[in-house]
């Protein structure tokens, strides 16, 4: 446990890291949607070109956030949270 987490669990900025596996990908791309082999359901569309998805597989809790970088719009940031509890649909 990090020192910041022991002091304040609710206000801790790194709390998300305790929930599970997280990867951030930065890709130079014209399109926001990368083909990563999994099927995704859009949860919501927000302004600022940020989109939220969850894995379309039943009982899988993996989430993905896709946003275009404001400083450098050539890049797209994709954040994955959690581990898939099933194989990639593209492999089957
Ligand atoms: Zn999944």
From TrEMBL:
Keywords: DNA-binding, Nucleus, Transcription, Transcription regulation. It holds the Pfam family WRKY. The keyword DNA-binding applies. Its main location: nucleus. Residues 80-92 have a biased composition (Polar residues). Residues 71-92 are annotated as: Disordered. Residues 29-89 form the WRKY domain. PROSITE patterns: WRKY (PS50811). One of its GO terms (molecular function) is DNA-binding transcription factor activity. SUPFAM superfamilies: WRKY DNA-binding domain. It is found in: Nucleus. It comes from the Eukaryota. This is WRKY domain-containing protein. One of its GO terms (cellular component) is nucleus.
């Amino acid at each position: 446990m990090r020192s910041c987490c022991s002091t304040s669990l609710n206000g801790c900025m790194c709390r998300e890291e305790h929930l599970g596996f997280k990867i951030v990908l930065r890709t130079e791309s014209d399109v926001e949607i990368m083909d990563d082999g999994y099927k995704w359901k859009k949860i919501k569309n927000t302004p600022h070109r940020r989109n939220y998805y969850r894995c379309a597989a039943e009982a899988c809790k993996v989430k993905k956030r896709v946003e275009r970088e404001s400083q450098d719009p050539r890049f797209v940031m994709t954040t994955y949270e959690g581990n898939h509890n099933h194989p990639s649909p593209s492999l089957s």
